[in-house]
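User: Hey, quick favor. My workstation is busy. Could you predict this chain's structure for me?
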Amino acid sequence: MNARTLRLSTLIAATLLVSAVGTARAGRTIGGGIHYLRNLGDITNSGAVNLDQNSYSLLASIKNNLGMLKLDGQVEYVFDHVGTGHEMWQPSAWLLAGGMFYGGAGIGIGYTNGDWQANPFYALRAGAEIPLGGLALDGFATYQFQSDAELKNLTGEDLDSVTFAAILRFGF
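Assistant: No problem, here it is.
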């Protein structure tokens, strides 16, 4: 593991820890849901590789509401990352602003096939968290910016993608 990946992993772990140990009055929620990822590049028609632009995953989240700011730590399990036949674990950390409707930015990195990806992703997110009694439905869309040198060499494309997710949240 190189120094940059170690720093990024430490940052993500610290963010998850801060989210997990915040004060009770901050309004913590945990949740789980589904995530759909659509790569924007034409990665299926390269002839060199047969990849899939669509990926699906399960998503777990812990969110700390701090007034108008929210910290959200997530971990995601992607069943078949871009059709490679390999699953991927992807932790991420988000700083969000707003109330029922919110927006923000995040960073994350994938762990697949025994290695961390060489480059993290950066993302913008917009969503709505709809209260449902003691639960909440959090639906959001993201635009992820991610570069992958190996994929770029094979197909001329990167891993930029649009994603949609729905998480059912429980307060504690």
